[in-house]
Write a structure and sequence with these properties.
Layout lengths: L9 H11 L4 H8 L3 H9 L5 H11 L3 H5 L3 H10 L20 H36 L1
Helix pairs in contact: 1-3, 2-3
């Protein structure tokens, strides 16, 4: 029994990473200063020269090693732990990073609503007391 070994097709890896980054070939071409047909040729190539690979990696926002070692199995953990430390991070980020638990936020909103309701009840009680005082004074 022989096992088939998948070839290390760099172009397919670039294509898959580009798709995962929700980037079209035209957008990658523009980032590299080329055209869509050149990107298509790169993605169909089994090997790519190191200089060009470095440019593509930079345009995709990943490292050369990430492209070379890319596999479907490890891509989930890689992209979940990838943090962009460039100027695209933060307020103007294309992919914002949320660091909160939605249930915690929901509970905070619920507690805040409860406090506001209690303040409203207290204000109404004070208003009733004030009006009763005015009525008794007449």
């Amino acid at each position: 029994m022989s096992t088939l070994i998948k070839p290390n097709h760099i172009g397919r890896k670039i294509s898959r990473i580009r798709e995962l980054r929700d980037m079209k070939q035209e957008a990658l071409a523009q980032a590299l200063g080329t055209n869509q047909q050149a990107i298509s040729a790169i993605e169909n190539s089994e090997t790519i020269e190191d200089g060009k690979l470095a440019e593509v990696a930079k345009a995709l926002g990943v490292t050369v090693e990430a492209i070379k070692n890319f596999s479907e199995e490890n891509m989930i953990s890689y992209f979940n732990s990838f943090h962009d430390n460039s100027t695209n991070n933060g307020q103007n980020a294309a992919y914002p990073i949320y660091n909160f638990n939605p249930l915690d936020k929901l509970m905070e909103v619920y507690d805040e609503k409860e406090k506001l309701y209690e303040r409203l009840i207290q204000a109404e009680k004070e208003k009733v007391e004030y009006l009763e005082k005015i009525i008794k004074g007449k």
